[in-house]
Amino acid sequence: MKQTDAPIFKYSGTRRSAKIEKFLLRPPVEKGADQIAAEVLAEIRKHGDSAVIKYVRQFDRAPVKLSTLRVSKTEIAAAKKAVDKKFKKAADEAHKRITEFAAAGLREDWRMPAPQGGWLGEKFVALDRIGAYIPGGAAPLASTALMTLTLAEVAGVPERVACTPAGADGSVNPYVLYALALAGATEIYRVGGIQAIGAMAYGTKTIRKVQKIVGPGGPYVTAAKRLVYGQVALDMVAGPSEIAVLADDTANPAHIAADLLSQAEHGTGSEKAMLVTPSEKLAKAVRAEVGKQSALLVRQKPVSEVLARGFLIVVVPTLGKGIELCNRFAPEHMEILVKNAEQAAGKIRTAGAIFMGPWTPEAVGDFAAGPSHVLPTGGTAAFFSGLTVEDFRRRISLIRFTKEDLEETVSVVEAFGRVETLDAHARSATIRLNLRPKGFKR
């Protein structure tokens, strides 16, 4: 099938297309990834550093030794010199915007009075040690360093670990290193894939265990993250990128095509891109533009794979039906290019991030706007949210009662203690008031 021959499907909401349903029900983790991830994780848990080195050489194909696992200060200094001034300026601007957005999102400790003179509240405490996974390889995501570790630094996390794969010569991309240093990484390790997740989750002699792992990755990283949940906290399921565009005939077909292709080029071949529109004329124009623009891109192979199996154009009878379909898809990135974009955005309930209007391409969210680009994928935007500064802090409830507060609530404690057959719970309250628990039988 030629790229320009992609079929255009119809969606009414009543008669459902098997192709559309299959597209919507994509798994968050690819088939087979769990089994491979489980095998690698088990070996890392048992053998630690030696297993990490083994899999770095096997999967990352990097000639790494135990002594070179951690990136040195000398390498970081060299990377800072190697990076061009234009990128430094761009990274500094992105870092500034991300920092400002994160700082604005910090919640403050708070209190409210209890009815009889005590008080209730919450306090927020930074985690002690977190790990960020930074994808490398074909697409070294320097922006992900800023979109993860910057938030951790703003939150006040003292130990901020980064893992990212090295190249065939054992070096880490200097742009990634520059961004990691700018974002405040306190430790950087040249480890990618499942082995990075295992090392951070279980800990080794070289890479100490973290409390939480954040950051996106391919299907194997996503599978590994799911499997270590409970050993560590996680941000979300963040796998191959995806985008949905809701557009009417006021939108520019060339812009839509560019936006759809922007997510197809990431490199796993598992990305998803969907256009939803009530205009068949626009659908055909976008299809033609996708064929034209895709031929100009550098990453021909991954783009062609996505266009063959992860690309969908859907014509709907109304914008309302289009919104319904987009909510069912629950995309990582949701672009709205319609006449009343903000009004339509108010009806989108399931999305990692929403981009409104003709001047807001998804790429500004990836690199520059401020909110983190670490967002839920695979339909999990229906129940997960994107990474925020609060993901790096613990929320702790605070309760201080007076005697009068306890007197007012002791009957509630007694009642639940009786129903749940937990008399010690009830006694812990009544003993303070010299009362005998009521309704308990030995």
List the total number of helices. 17
Percent of residues in helices: 40-55%
Shape: globular
Averaging pLDDT over every residue, what do you get? 94
CATH superfamily of the largest domain: Nitrogenase molybdenum iron protein domain
Biggest sheet, strands in spatial order?
1-11-10-9-12-13
CATH architect. name of the largest domain: 3-Layer(aba) Sandwich
Radius of gyration: 25 Å
Strand residue content: 15-25%
Name the CATH class of the largest domain: Alpha Beta
Biggest sheet details: 6 strands, parallel
Distance between the termini: 76 Å
Q: Tell me the number of structural domains.
A: 3
Query: What structural category do the secondary elements indicate?
Result: alpha/beta
Low-confidence stretches: none
**CATH fold group of the largest domain:** Rossmann fold
Number of strands: 14
Notable traits:
442 residues, alpha/beta, Rossmann fold, 3 domains, 6-stranded parallel β-sheet, 5-stranded parallel β-sheet, 17 helices, 14 strands
Set out the fold topology.
Blueprint: E1 8-10, H1 18-24, H2 33-47, H3 49-60, H4 73-82, H5 85-104, E2 110-113, E3 119-126, E4 129-133, H6 142-155, E5 159-163, H7 174-183, E6 187-189, H8 193-202, E7 212-214, H9 219-228, E8 233-234, E9 242-247, H10 253-264, E10 272-277, H11 280-294, H12 300-309, E11 311-315, H13 319-329, E12 333-337, H14 341-345, E13 353-356, H15 362-367, E14 393-400, H16 403-419, H17 423-430
Parallel strand pairs: 1-11, 4-5, 4-7, 5-6, 7-8, 9-10, 9-12, 10-11, 12-13
Antiparallel strand pairs: 2-3, 3-14
Helix pairs in contact: 2-3, 2-8, 2-9, 3-8, 4-7, 5-6, 5-7, 6-7, 8-9, 10-11, 16-17
